[in-house]
Structures are given as C-alpha cells and as structure tokens.
C-alpha cells in the first residue's frame, strides 16, 4: 500500500477543510473532513503510450487498483484525463463510486464500464449539487479537439478549488468562478495544444486571487510540452505576490483549512 493510499484513508482533515494531492499530469485527489475521497482527472496508466506513443516520464502517484473513491470528476475526454486504462479498474473496484463529467466523456465512461445510473452530466455555466460536493462549471477553451471541455470550481465544505482543466486563457469565461473567490487554483501550464503556458497561468492566478496556486500538466508526457513550474512560481511572485504558489510532488498532500466566504 502506497503512502498516498494510507494518507487518503487516514488523514485528519479539519472541519470544512480539504486535503489535496497531485497525482501527476492534471490529476488530483481530495479527502474531505467527512472522509470522502474525490478524484479529478486521474491519469494512472500508460494508455497514452499505447494509443499515441506518448511515453510516460514519471510514475503515477498510485496504481488504479489502489484507488478508493466516492467520486471521480472529469474535465474532458482526452486519454490523459479520462484514462481508458485506469477508469475501468476504478469503476469495477468501487461499485458505489459515481462519476461526474461533461458530454464529451459519455462514450469513454461507457467503454470503461460505467453505467448511466452512476453518471452525472456536467453542463457548462451551472451549479451542480452532488451532495458530497458542489461543482460549478464554465466552458474551457480547448478548441475543436474537445468542444465540451470544462473549467471547474469544486466546493469541499468551506474550501473552493478552481481547476482549469485544459484550456487557453479566457478571463471573461472564467470570471463566474473568480467571483466565487476560490481558495486554491489548480492550473495547466504546459503551453501546447492550445493550453496556457506558465505566464498565462500566472495571469489567471492574479485575476482569481486565491490563497494557493498549484501548477499541473507538466513533466508527465514529453510530447505534451515540458511546462515551466519554476517560471510559474516566479511569475506569480511578480504578478500576485500575496498568493502562495506551491509546487507539489506527486503523492504528497497539502491541507487547506476553511475560511469564511461572503458568496
């Protein structure tokens, strides 16, 4: 059993707070104060190498067989987000787990063995109350390669986490999520396939003004852009020095405590 698996099962999370973990690529795991476990875009296999020849450069933070999940939330259907290697294992091993995703993920979830009864359709510009968490959505600009892609804000009790997914920098599109005052921004920085680079991502962070900013989508698949995490931290220090930019090592947790929100 990996250290991450133990942490996800046993971590003590303060009331209203959340403990989050980077899984590599754009994947994250969350443990709530109530002990619920939520996975976002978990890429845990070598599916991209099998499908496209994109060799994985870093090991996943845990194996799909180790995942114990209450929810899996997806931003879009690409294989490094909707993992056709990992999701069938997660779905099979977690019969009570539910899946929330935009329309472009429907076929991939069906192929992974996820029945329609276990799925919640995430529509853009909506608030989705999933009981254990609330998901706010706006469109992401991932171009024609994923027209239904979403940028999300996840509410875990008193902590709000904005996850950009794969997208260009679109301040007007993102403003409804900025207005919700996210505590944490998880942002793509790889700078290819239409995605934000580290400078664009720092601009987004300066607009959203969270307490924490965490870069992702770098150093997992070479063909998807190297990204510049140190450049992101330095850009945030210049553009929004009041925000704590954090570089996470895959599998290591960060606990974010709740604050009172006015909205």
Tell me what you see in this structure.
With 263 residues, the protein is of the alpha/beta class. It has a single domain, classed as Metallo-beta-lactamase, Chain A (4-Layer Sandwich), CATH 3.60.15. The chain is 22% helix and 24% strand. The protein contains seven helices and 14 strands. The chain has helices at residues 3-10, 47-52, 87-93, 106-111, 171-178, 198-208, 229-239, and strands spanning 18-24, 27-32, 37-40, 71-73, 98-101, 119-121, 127-129, 134-139, 150-156, 159-163, 184-188, 212-216, 244-245, 253-256. It has a seven-stranded mixed sheet with strand order 6-5-4-3-2-1-14, covered by helices on one side. Strands 7-8-9-10-11-12-13 form a seven-stranded mixed sheet. β12, α7 (229-239) and β13 (244-245) form a beta-alpha-beta unit. α6 (198-208) packs parallel to α7 (229-239). The longest helix has 11 residues, at 198-208. The mean pLDDT is 95.
């Amino acid at each position: 059993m990996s250290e991450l698996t133990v942490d996800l099962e046993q971590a003590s999370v303060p009331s209203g707070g959340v403990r989050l973990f980077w899984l590599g690529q754009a994947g994250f795991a969350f443990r709530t104060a109530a002990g619920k476990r939520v996975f976002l875009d978990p890429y845990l296999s070598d599916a991209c190498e099998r499908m496209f020849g994109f060799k994985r450069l870093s090991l996943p933070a845990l194996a799909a067989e180790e995942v114990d999940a209450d929810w899996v939330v997806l931003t879009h259907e690409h294989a490094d987000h909707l993992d056709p290697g990992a999701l069938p294992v997660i779905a099979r091993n977690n019969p009570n787990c539910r899946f929330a995703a935009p329309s472009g993920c429907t076929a991939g979830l069906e192929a992974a063995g996820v029945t329609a009864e276990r799925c919640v359709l995430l529509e853009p510009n909506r608030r989705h109350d999933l009981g254990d968490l609330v998901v706010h959505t706006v469109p992401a600009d991932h171009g024609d390669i994923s027209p239904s892609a979403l940028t999300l804000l996840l509410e875990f009790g008193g902590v709000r986490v904005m996850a950009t997914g794969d997208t260009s920098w679109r301040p007007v599109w993102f403003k409804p999520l900025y207005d919700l005052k996210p505590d944490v921004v998880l942002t793509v920085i790889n700078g290819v396939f239409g995605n934000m680079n580290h400078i664009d991502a720092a601009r987004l962070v300066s607009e959203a003004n969270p307490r924490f900013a965490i870069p992702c989508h770098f150093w997992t698949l070479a063909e998807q852009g190297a990204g510049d995490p140190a450049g992101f931290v330095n850009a945030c220090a210049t553009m929004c020095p009041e925000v704590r930019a954090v570089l996470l090592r895959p599998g290591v947790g960060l606990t974010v405590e709740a604050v009172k929100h006015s909205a």
